[in-house]
Amino acid sequence: MSDRAALVTGASRGIGKATATKLAERGYDLVLHGHGADAVAAVAAELSEKFGVTALHAHGDIADPATSKALIQLAFQSFKRLDALVVNAGTHAAGMLGMTDDATIERLFAVNAAGAVYTLRGAARLLARGKDPAVVLLSSITASRGIAGQAVYSASKGAVAALARSAAKELGPQGIRVNAVEPGFIRTDMLDTLDEKGREERIGDTALRRLGEAEDVADVIAFLLSDQARFVTGQVIGVDGGLKL
Amino acid sequence: MSELQRLREAFRTALDLPADAPVDDLRYQDNEKWDSLAHMSLVATIEDEFSVMIDTDDVINMSSFQEAISILGKYGINFNE
Predict the structure, then answer these.
(1) How open is the CA angle A181-A67-B14, to the nearest 5 degrees?
(2) Is residue A41 part of a domain?
(3) Is A28 one of the catalytic residues?
(4) Which InterPro entries match (chain B) (predicted)?
(5) A63: left (phi over 0), alpha (psi -120 to 50) or beta
(6) Which chain A residues are within 8 Å of B51, Cβ to Cβ?
(7) What is the pLDDT of residues A127-165, one digit of tens each?
(8) Above 80 in pLDDT, residue A191?
(9) Which chain A residues touch B53 with a CB distance below 8 Å?
(10) CATH number of the domain that A86 lies in?
(11) From the list B48, B51, B53, which residue is nearest A72 (CB)?
C-alpha cells in the first residue's frame, strides 16, 4: 500500500478521471466514484493495472446521501483514513433563467451543491485521521464571474466555493486544508453541447486562445493536495487560461 | 477491559475529564466540556476505540452516554456485562 489514500468523486471521465490518473501516477491508493457502475469500474481497473495502486470503486447518484455514505464506508473499511478528497461529481445544464424548469433547478443544486456537502461531511472524520489531509472541490469560473444562460448552474457552483471557504476555517484546526478550483472552458463532455461557432467563441474569450484540457485542471488539483501547497487553504483558484467573461 | 469500560474511557479521554469522573449520566451540552467541537472529537475517539464508522444521523443523535450505548449496539458492540 502506498503512503496516501484519496477519494475522487465523478472519476469516470473528464476532470475526475484525469485527477484520479494523476494521483495514481503519484502512488495514491484510491476510492473512485462514478454515477454508473461500468465506467468507473473500468477506470479503477485501468489505474490499478497501470500504476500498481489499490483502486476501489462504487457508484450511485451523488445527490443521494446514501452514495457518499457507501463511499466513506468503503474508504474506512479499506484504509481507515483519507489523506485526500476530490469533490468533482457534478452536472451541467444551461438555459436562460426564465426558461429553466423546477426539475432542472432542483437537480443542479442537489448534485452540485448538496452532493458536495454530503461528500465532504462524510469524509471529514476520515480526513482528520489522515496524514497532511487536503480537500479540493470543483467549482466553476462561472460562479465568480457570472455568465448569461448559466445562472442556475453558476449559483450551484457558487455554493461549492462558499463551502470550501467556510469548511477551510472549520476543519483547519484539525489540520485539514480545503480549497476549490474554478475551471474555465475545459474540453470535456460538458462542452459537447457547443457547436463549432460556440467553441470558437469560447476560445476567443480565453487569453491563452485554447480550450483547457482535463489534465490542466488535474495538475492544479494534485498540487493543492500536495505538500507543496501545505500553507494554502480556503482559496478558490481559477484554472481558466485567462478567461474574460 | 469490558466494552462499557472502554466507552467510559473514550468519553473521559475525548472530553478531557478526570480518570475517575462518572460519565454514565452525561448528556450533551449539560457538561461544559461536551460542546459541539468536543462532540466531533468524542465521535472520532469512539470510532477509533471500537473500529467503526458512525453514520451522520447517529452522530447527531448521540446526545448522552446512554444513547451512545444504544447507538453502538447497532454497530455490533455488545455492552451487556
Answers:
(1) 80
(2) yes
(3) no
(4) ACP-like_sf, PP-bd_ACP
(5) alpha
(6) 80
(7) 999 999 999 999 999 999 998 999 999 999 999 999 999
(8) no
(9) 72-73, 76, 125-126
(10) 3.40.50.720
(11) B53
Three-state DSSP at A193 gives coil
Which amino acid is it at A21? Answer: T
The CATH superfamily assigned to B3-73 is ACP-like (1.10.1200.10)
What single string gives the DSSP state of each residue in B6-64?
Answer: HHHHHHHHHTT--TT---TT-BTTTSTT-SHHHHHHHHHHHHHHHT----HHHHHH--B
Interface test mutation site (partner B, options A71, A72, A125, A169, max chain B beta carbons within 10 A): A125
Give A17's contacts (C-beta < 8 A, 6+ positions apart).
A11, A43, A214
- Spatial separation of the C-alpha atoms in residues A199 and A195, rounded to whole Å: 6
The single-letter code of the amino acid at A5 is A
Domain count, chain A: 1
Identity at A137, one-letter amino acid code: L
Alpha-carbon separation of residue A110 from A91, A114, A163, A174, B57 (angstroms): 10, 5, 14, 28, 19
DSSP A212: B
Q: Write out the residue range of the structural domain in which residue A177 sits.
A: 5-239
For residue range B54-74, what is the model confidence (pLDDT) as tens digits?
Answer: 999 999 999 999 999 999 999
